[in-house]
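Exercise: predict the fold of this chain.
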Amino acid sequence: AILSRLAPALCAAGFEVQAPLLVRWYNEHPKVTPLGVAHHLDADGDTLALLVGNSRTLWRPFVRWVGERLAEDENYLARHPDALDAYARHAVSTLLRALDGVPGLDAAPSVVFADETLETHGRCVSVATAAHVAGLAFYDASLQRSLHKALGPWIAYRAVIVFSGVIAPRLPRPPEPTNPLSPAEAQRVLAIQQDCFLRWDDSDEQANWGRLRSIVDAFEIGREHRYEHEMMQFHYEPDAHRRLEALRRTALCARGPGDGGAAARRAALSCDARTG
């Protein structure tokens, strides 16, 4: 009942990539167990958890939300440069508060977000490992990347929700995912990745990030789920000012000239000039 109520709300917010798991599946993974409690999910082993992620469908809800923030405060992005992390926290936390009173949920769920680190939060969970043990996506250690059988590399993880007190020992454990890449594709992408790192030049971040982008673009699997242009620009533009300015323009264009005052009207004129 909990997941069936939460799942469609998460989808509407752009987080349609979801996979349930038990805490022990993650904590008992051979790569996680030796790491210590700061890297573990803090709950009984049979506690229900949910991995939350996204494909390219996140972009439109995210951009709309940013537009709403800019309508309230035109300097929002200057004060919140990590806007996508902020959106994930806002959306997930808001949806979880809406679960208050749902039968079987006697305690507030806890959430570990993917952007948390030992330095910032005193804990760090491997969301790629969580995806692997949940049967969602294969983790390719050589490519250091999660690969979904349909989405390919066009997938990202945002949080692990732990439903404290919800014990689900009978949750069926999915089979371990297998690598969806053919040996030829795996070798081809690995060669591009190795070339990228061999040519890394700290004095030319644009070139570095262009080659990083060429790695993900080299996958055949999931090509139809490739991020749209503005989303690629957001993820692969190394210059923070350019990245946030592009996001600002996209968000204000999405709102339209009648939605956000003078800033939105200026953005709409700019959109017309680019597309007319």
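Check your answer against the key: The chain has a mean pLDDT of 92.
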